[in-house]
Amino acid sequence: MPSIAIGPRAPRWPRLLLMLLDVALLVLVLAVLAAARYDLTFSVKNRPGVALAMGLSAAVYLVTYGLLVARRYRWASTDEMLGLGITALCLGASLSAASVLTDPSIVPLSVAVTIAPSAGSAWLVLRYAAVRIHRARQRRDRRGGRRAVVVGAGSGGQQAVAMMLQDSRAALHPVALVDDDPAKRHLGVLGVRVAGRIDDLDEVVRSTEAEIILFAIPSAPAATVERVVHVAAESGCELLVLPSFSEMLTSEGAPAGPGRRVGSQVELPRQAFRPVLLEDLLGRGSVETNTEAIASYLDGKTVLVTGAGGSIGSQLCREIAQYSPARLVMTDRDDSLLHAVQLSIDGQGALESRDLVLGDLRTPGFITDLITDIRPDVVFHAAAIKHLTLAERFPAEAFLTNVVATADLLRACVAADVDRFVNISTDKAADPRSVLGYTKRTTELLTATFGTTASDDARYMSVRFGNVLGSRGSALTTFAAQLAAGRPITITSPDMTRYFMTVHEACQLVLQAAVDGETGDGLVLDMGTAHNIEQLARRFAALQGFAEPRIVYTGARPGEKLAETTLAAGEPDERPFHPLISRVRIPVLPRDLLLDITELRTGVVTSGGVQLVRDWLRDAVGVVAPPPAPGVEDASTSLVGPTPGPTSGPTPGPASEAEDDATAHHAPDHHDRTAWTSHS
């Protein structure tokens, strides 16, 4: 016979036995109500009616509860409460009808009317007592586990306490909670009391002799996490974190930060608590986005993502897939990365889908065939060379990938009437000093320029942000490899700072920025506060369980800044759309510089071609790098390394002259669509 239980470790009682227990309680309640109505005396005349009422009540309960509740809801669960209410109403209505239609009445009408709330209350008391007894036994049985104080008494804390108490193999035993909400000061969660505020955590840990601090506020700001980390370090407690539900559902193929494991399928582990990660300290909690507005330009549309195998591209694909596009076409030149991103989205990774396109944007004809074939409505351009040092060493490669391929893609998108084009840029494009910065700034200028030749309702914009935590090639990945190999951590300078954000936060804001951005907009994501890289490295080593690392300073590399900025000089910090998104206007490129791309495509690989690229980038961006800091190579020279010989490009002039030249060029007419599209 099917059975139910009030908890994973409770005896599994037969469903019929539990129903008979309810019937016995119902008969008892009816007897008490009838006795009260008859002044505690049952005459021979009244006994048959009361007996008939008891039989009728039992029959109504068994039929109603058996059909509507028993096979649908777990006994003593919250869901069962609605079923009990319906059962009580049916019981009251049936007994009241029987009382009115019989002569003499089987029971007085007052008894028939009050049976529903009285029986319902009795059933609830029974279940409450059963649950309390069960939970008390759970806490008694779990006292052998490691004692844990839970930070947060909201939904996350309640989930954490329930997981620890209900899992017979859990190694943790909750002894107290702390929460800053005054309304939760005396709250009890499954018998575990709130013992104070987060500021009282140190005292609560000592008084309860806790060994574990479990942080259960998935959306907490970094400052709150920092407070808890400090208390854990001072008290010697191990710190664990309850991840968000979306993090628990991370599937294979999704990028995994250092110390994070991913599985091949969606699976909720029995003990879903993990060590604290660096993104917990740097992240800023959840990002509020307008999901309806995002869905309005993605739902039912054909979306193309270039560089889909990269850290940003792959996460964008996963985020976009949730908005039900008609097609999500993913292209990359790395077949293994394409396999991984498809596996993370549909769990199959068969590589047979027409929405997976293997190819290099630099291959002649590839972009034209791709855009002509799929006819996208929305394009997210994330393909790029992104490593600063390699871009400095091989500027021709950075130019061909970041500039030439972007220009070709924009030209094809304009010709195909793409509605929305989002260029993924970087904070190094703000006042650039490196090849990477110059090329990415140029992609912003190209996006604004080609956008002026698109249709009136099209939107061509760039989104600029900084470092992404845990991405391939990021500082954290480098630190993790060095620590694992027992090597010292290499850092440019003790004064170097960088901005960081999580990949999920970055992609959410990219999708939001594309809601409000217009042609010619540069949308700059708020990266929070800059973090000192050395302090970040030491904190990362501590969180990963390594001893105090040895730091080696390498000095600034060519083109590298000690401190990045997200907004260039003269760019206002205006946020008309979203509190975390600034909007700046990107100028258009002069026509003569734009037409040079066709010549530079072939000339860059010839003798002196690299210098031509350097001069063209300088003119396109319209700035000359400031004088270098002592001991740092001049940024303008670092664009190309030593000059190979005489060049045909213009001679670098003062910054003011370059800026004047850049702003004096005539901007093209918005409807002159042939000026940039007729050259391939």
Automatic annotation (TrEMBL):
Pfam families: CoA_binding_3, Polysacc_synt_2. Residues 303-581 form the Polysaccharide biosynthesis protein CapD-like domain. InterPro entries: NAD(P)-bd_dom_sf, Polysac_CapD-like, Polysaccharide_Synthase-Rel. Residues 643-653 have a biased composition (Pro residues). Gene3D superfamilies: NAD(P)-binding Rossmann-like Domain. The chain crosses the membrane at residues 16-38, 50-70, 82-100, 106-126, 147-165. Residues 628-680 are annotated as: Disordered. Residues 662-674 have a biased composition (Basic and acidic residues). The keyword Methyltransferase does not apply. The keyword Transmembrane helix applies. Keywords: Membrane, Transmembrane, Transmembrane helix. Belongs to the polysaccharide synthase family. This is Nucleoside-diphosphate sugar epimerase/dehydratase. It comes from Terrabacter aeriphilus. The lineage of its organism: Bacteria, Bacillati, Actinomycetota, Actinomycetes, Micrococcales.
